[in-house]
Amino acid sequence: MNELAQAIPYFGSRNPRVARGIVLALMLLAPLLAGMIGNTWIRVLDAALLYVMLALGLNLVVGFAGLLDLGYIAFYAVGAYTWGFLASPHMGVHLPFWIVLPAGAGLAAMAGILLGFPVLRLRGDYLAIVTLGFGEIVRIFMGNLNVTNGPQGINMLDSLNIFGWDVSRNIQITESFQINALTSFYYVFLLFVVGSVIVMRRLQISRIGRGWAAIRDDELAAKAIGINTRNMKLLAFAMGATFGGVSGGLFGSFQGFVSPESFTLLESIAVLTMVVFGGMGNLGGVIVGAVALSLLPEVLRYIALPIQQAIFGKVLLDPEVLRMLLLSLAMIFMMLIRPAGLLPANARYSREELVKGLKEKQA
Amino acid sequence: MSIVLLEAKNISKRFGGIQALSDVSLTIRKGEVYGLIGPNGAGKTTFFNVLTGAYTPDQGEFVFAGTELPTGKPHLVVERGIARTFQNIRLFREMTALENVMAGHHIRTDSSLFGILLQNRHTREEERLITERAYELLRYVGIERFADTLSRNLSYGDQRRLEIARALATEPQLLALDEPAAGMNATETAQLRDLIETIRHDGVTVLLIEHDVKLVMGLCDRVAVLDFGKKIAEDVPAVVQKNQAVIEAYLGGGHHAH
To answer: For the whole model, what pTM was predicted?
Structure first.
């Protein structure tokens, strides 16, 4: 929250309380504001929140533990397909979300450990190549197995039903006023994001978070102070994958169908770009990066088509092409202007209030 | 003084065609400062790496506090009570000085994943305790005013001290220092000397690799000299200083046909 408040340039550091209020209000009112323009925009916000959760999970692996993972989207796929298997007519089972989501998270964590074992000794570029391969393997499997229904994917996934409340139904409050299903999804996803941030925060300022940071900063020294680097790395892969699995499940329930084409290498790269763009290792930065980079292309799409129509009389550049162009430009821009990301990591791995207390006692 | 803490038995290690250590045996007693000296490339750091589990020896074993030490598993060696520092300082750059030391407590803490996620009482208590202890250790080595400074922004001498504090956080019985005075000026070396004296006084045995002969001779109770991977002398400093083989090794006596 504080980190998000700081994301408001200049103002955030001067009036932290007001800034925090603004961030909170924006978070809560966003779907209502977006709804005024059109329901599409609420959908965009929902997708943005899914990306935030993905980026947070990837940040745990890349930002905290320093393990470059280019196949992260595979865990998203595992979560989504778990939802497809356990809650759709495809297998004829319709389990409730409190079984399916943990199952997806658990399977993703297992996939994370499966990936983790062979790459324990790898770092940097080599690790990136192997994880990239892993991501592709998962996608190609999903696209070629019979049980996943190949490239067609699985249709008619059950929507999120929270103890009798079907999130995908509009809620009619009065004759003329209703709460859109997309809005409901937004608040559900927001809850998950808030939960993720709390979990991340707690991990970061624990012995586990310090262990990860130690491995990231200097693996040899980490071993020399007694950190079991093998277990800590596997834990990082598993925990990161868990977040991917949960968001994958939510994605499945939101989208209503899953197919392999949602889980391409491009998606992995997009999520990594969000992490790097926002500020690796800094939770607030990662959130800002994910929101910015998932909203910007949509905004662009919204204005690029009419502008092209107006100027050239036809559409020269497809918005999808523009999206990649924009991501690349964002990366180049960041490398030149702010190599450490929009909000550079100013990460703490200890409890601030405890440190402060000690210093006061000292003085 | 005479209880044996660490016994190295016939340690050998070969890298390709180079015999880095051959048949090195030495005994470190509890409570002493034990110096390991020798010309460049004599095998001192290799000995450190084999001892702390970074490498596995080709032959030989270490007996520490009465039982054999595991080889090739650094974290188990630390758990048994041997901590080390590095010749070229290795700190966790993106963490503050305090957090570096707190990370050093890792092996002596046991908050579980679920304890951390739920922030149960044990976790909170442990976190409070190690924050305090880490701060204490920073004061012990004399850099508590930099507790909140990122370790990469510390001065060279302070980084050395921080590395020692981090090693002490693992609660070692034996502290192995790899050239702690390298690159230090006279004042810093004198302070380092006092620090090592204090550490020894507080009951930690010290194994010291050092090039600064004055420091070694003044500080160590006993000294072993390595040359081309072999131990050529082991005794109190005054005797080692007069040893003919040692003088030749350092001044290049010329008849070493290796």
So the answer is: 0.91
